[in-house]
Amino acid sequence: MTFVLAIAMIAAPGTAGAGFADLDAIDRRIAAFTGAAVGAVGGAQTPLDRRLRLRLCQEPLALTWRSARQDSVLVQCPDPGGWRLFVPVVRPAVSAPAAPVPAPDVIARGDAVAIAVSGQGFTVSQPGEALESGAVGEWIRVRPASASRQRAEEMRARVIRPGLVAIPLP
User: Fold this and answer.
1) What's the whole-number mean pLDDT along residues 92-98?
2) Range 80-91 average pLDDT
3) Which keywords appear in this protein's UniProt record, sorted alphabetically (predicted)?
4) Residues 6+ apart with CB under 8 A from 38
5) CA 126 to each of CA 64, 65, 104, 130, 142: distance values in angstroms, whole numbers, following the listed order
6) What is the pTM of this model?
7) pLDDT band at 18, cuts 50/70/90?
8) d(CA 75, CA 26)
9) Does position 8 have pLDDT exceeding 50, yes or no?
10) CATH code 2.30.30.760 region(s) in the chain
11) How far, in Å, CA of 55 to CA of 85, rounded?
């Protein structure tokens, strides 16, 4: 008779026997607690590892969320010296963050701009023309108004505000 019982325990892993908890029953309790099946969004990521040999509890298992984020379930045997498990939960897929909205251009190609050249303790400015459109903080190509179109003295300047670009000197 003992031999038949041992064979039955080997043939049916996860069942309660020899003082071990029924892992299938614990999986069902976790699914009932989370409201979702194993592998489904909101349910346990995987079934409990069948190699676990958890001592059989005399008291009913206590299930709670591990944290306010509800990303894992804490399963505890409330008996003195009892065990506890942390079971990860499948979280819903997080959509990619929205792409940042590009800042609107405050200077358009062909706009008249003031080109300010600044260094330590001085600022000099002259009128110019924007050769590219740009938003505040962007670097665009500009040309001084005094330069003829054939002899273009293009330079790069940073957009400060509408109508003003700057070239900082070290």
Assistant:
1) 75
2) 92
3) Cell projection, Cilium, Flagellum, Signal
4) 27, 30, 31, 44, 45, 46, 47
5) 70, 66, 25, 13, 12
6) 0.48
7) low
8) 9
9) no
10) 112-168
11) 12
